[in-house]
Write a structure and sequence with these properties.
Radius of gyration: 18 Å
Strand content: 15-25%
Number of helices: 9
Number of strands: 10
Bound molecules: adenosine-5'-diphosphate, magnesium ion
Shape: globular
Largest sheet: 6 strands, mixed
CATH superfamily: P-loop containing nucleotide triphosphate hydrolases
CATH class: Alpha Beta
CATH topology: Rossmann fold
Number of domains: 1
Oligomer: single chain
Structural class: alpha/beta
Length: 251
């Protein structure tokens, strides 16, 4: 997998005709999108439009009903693909952080690399300390989640995802559950990651962030990509009525 990441002519993520149904309910109705290495793509759109489902299809947390999703050259719809191996390259951060409450911040961040035998305990500890410092929590390594603020917990969750050395990070409304004063500190971590060249797909309601940080903004509604473009195009000159309508409500 790592050999395919050096040359960036191939898209890192290639989604073609992606369809996802829950029973009779077709939630994604044919999504086509290519994302190249280092690109930051923000996905916006009304609630229920399929944003989370789309994100979850990118690491096969959902079974894919139709179409293909290719990540780092691996076709996720191919039954022979080792999905655990693919997932090791994809970090995901949700609205709710789901840290283990009985473990310290450090132990939470160390857990996956040790469990998957990606690192020894000592290596995992060193990496975790470095990552906690990177997200501004060097002093909270031994704190339990209950003693951390929402913003701090979410930053631990980001460090935990980074501990597996992903080359793609998926964020699903990572700041939506936070008190307003904590949104900024988490967005700053995302900003830093973007600046370092991480490939990121970010579902967000933070339009300021999407405008400032993304290379491309995708507007989804009713299971379709209605419109996509640079932030300047999408926010400054939206083409579709649906997009205009949505932006009028949120901006
Ligand atoms: P968004 O993230 O844009 O708010 P979602 O992807 O969460 O949208 O949901 C899109 C649609 O899919 C909604 O109608 C939702 O009810 C449905 N849906 C999502 N997950 C499931 C599930 N596990 N089972 C059944 N329906 C689901
Ligand atoms: Mg959602």
């Amino acid at each position: 997998m790592s050999e395919s990441t050096s040359v960036t002519t191939e898209p890192k993520i290639r989604v073609s005709g992606l369809v996802k149904s829950f029973g009779e309910n077709e939630v994604l109705k044919g999504i086509d999108v290519d994302i190249v290495g280092g690109e930051v793509v923000c996905v916006i759109g009304p609630s229920g439009s399929g944003k989370s489902t789309f994100l979850r299809c990118l690491n096969k947390l959902e079974d894919i009903t139709g179409g293909t999703v290719i990540v780092d050259g691996f076709d996720l719809t191919d039954k022979k693909v080792d999905i655990d191996k693919v997932r090791q390259h994809i970090g995901m951060v949700f609205q709710h952080f789901n840290l283990f409450p009985h473990m310290t911040a450090l132990e939470n961040v160390m857990l996956a690399p040790v469990q998957t035998k990606k690192a020894t305990k000592e290596e995992a500890r060193a990496t975790a300390l470095k990552l906690l410092a990177q997200v501004g929590l060097g002093e909270k390594a031994n704190a339990k989640p209950a003693s951390l603020s929402g913003g701090q917990k979410q930053r631990v969750a980001i460090a935990r995802a980074l501990a597996m050395s992903p080359d793609i990070m998926l964020f699903d409304e990572a700041t939506s559950a936070l008190d307003p004063e904590m949104v900024g500190e988490v967005l700053q971590v995302l900003r830093d990651l973007a600046a370092e060249g991480m490939t990121m797909v970010v579902v967000t309601h933070e339009m300021g962030f999407a405008r400032e940080v993304s290379d491309r903004v995708i507007f989804m509604a009713d299971g379709y990509i209605v419109e996509e473009g640079t932030p300047a195009e999408l926010f400054g000159n939206p083409q579709h009525e649906r997009t205009q309508d949505f932006l009028r409500k949120v901006l």
